[in-house]
Amino acid sequence: MGMSNTISRLTGRGGTASVTVAHAREIARLVGQSRETTLPDRVLTAAINSGLAQPGHVPKGGSWRRAAAENPDLHDVLHRLAADTYGYRKIMICEMSTVVQADLLTVRLSSDEWERLFSTGIVPVVEHGRTPLQDGRVTFASHDPGNPDVRTAVEQIRSVKPRLVYADLDIVHALQGVMMKSIPMLGGLSTPHRPALKKVRLDADNRFGRAA
C-alpha cells in the first residue's frame, strides 16, 4: 500500500477535523519515511504529509501556531498533533474530582497564581481513576502545553509537584467556567478572550471527552 493510500486510510479522504493520538503517532511514523514535504516546523510537516493540512495553509514564517490561528478549522487538529509530536499526553478528565481538587488548591495557590494560570489558558485537572492531590502531584491541562509561557506559569508553582498534559481548548474553558461558578475565591478571575466554542460532551461517568 502506498504512502498516500495509507495516509488516506488513517485520516479519511475528503477531509476531517480530528486526529487521535494513535493516528498522530502513525502519521508521524509515516512522515518519517516520506520525502513528500519537509518544513522547518515538524508539526506542519506532519500535518501536510498526512493530508490534514494543505501547503496553502502554511503562513509566512512556517509556524504551526500561526497556521492554527489563521485557519479555525485546523485549530484543534494542529494543537492535538503538536501535543503528540512533543510528547504531551491527552487524558480523560473527571469533572467532579477536578472541582474538588481546585477547592483544595485554594489554600495552596495564591490569587496571583490562579490568575496567571487562568489567563494563560491553564487549568488544574484530575485524571479519571485518580484522586485529587494524589502523591502530592497536580496535573495541569493546556491546549498548548509546549508554549513557553504555559510551561513557565506551571514551573513557577512551588507548592505542588506539577505536570503538564494536553486538553482541547473548549474543555479548558469549560472547566475554568465550572470552577469560577463553584468556588468563591475563583469567581473574579479573568480569562482570555474566548472564541465561539463547541459544546463539550460529558459521558455518563461525568468525564470530559471529545467535543461533540
Structural class: alpha+beta
Low-confidence stretches: 1-17, 193-212
Describe the global form. elongated
Placed side by side, the strands forming the largest sheet appear as 1-6-5
Kindly, what is the distance between the CA atoms of the first and last residues, rounded to a whole number of angstroms? 33 Å
| Oligomeric state as shown | single chain
Q: Strand count, sense and closure of the main sheet?
A: 3 strands, antiparallel
Overall number of strands: 6
CA radius of gyration: 18 Å
Element order: H for helix, E for strand: HHHHHEHHEEHEHEE
Mean pLDDT: 78
Query: Percentage of helical residues?
Result: 40-55%
Number of helices: 9
What topology does this entry show?
Elements: H1 3-11, H2 21-33, H3 42-50, H4 64-70, H5 75-85, E1 93-94, H6 95-105, H7 111-119, E2 122-125, E3 137-142, H8 148-155, E4 161-166, H9 169-182, E5 200-202, E6 207-211
Parallel strand pairs: 3-4
Antiparallel strand pairs: 1-6, 2-3, 5-6
Helix pairs in contact: 1-2, 2-3, 2-5, 3-5, 4-5, 6-9
